[in-house]
Description:
The protein is of the alpha+beta class. It is about 15% helix and about 40% strand. It has one helix and eight strands, in the order ββββαββββ. A six-stranded antiparallel sheet has the order 1-2-6-7-8-5, with helices on one face. A two-stranded antiparallel ribbon has the order 3-4.
Amino acid sequence: MAPFEKVIAEEKDITRFIPQRPPIVMIGKLHSVADKKTTTSLLIREDNIFCDNGFLREPGLIENMAQTAAAGAGYLSKHEQKEPAVGYIGGIRNLQIYRYPPIGSEIITEVSVTYEVLDATVVTGKIFLKEQLIAECELKIFILKE
């Protein structure tokens, strides 16, 4: 993946679109929200709570994909004058991690909505380090109704 020039939200503004708060915020910039696809990036820092032995590990990669989905939904909610909904991961399928990204690297994450049924949204997430696919999975995300 080539670096993005467009940035919808920088790190300091990203919590406008997601319900998570530090130290659990696992996206740095929101780059695009179009149709059913959202793209974010994350610079992996040494103080990231999901880093171990110099690399971002499984929980951080999964949370990064889930928060990318949340950022897309939150961005659309803001345009409807609503607050971002709170959701949780209800299932993970076909998780494949090909490589762990090292501290100091920047990952780019793409999440596409596969389908929505009632309170559940199924998404496919892919994480790239430069041009290389390093992780992917399908997430079932449930949205809490108020």
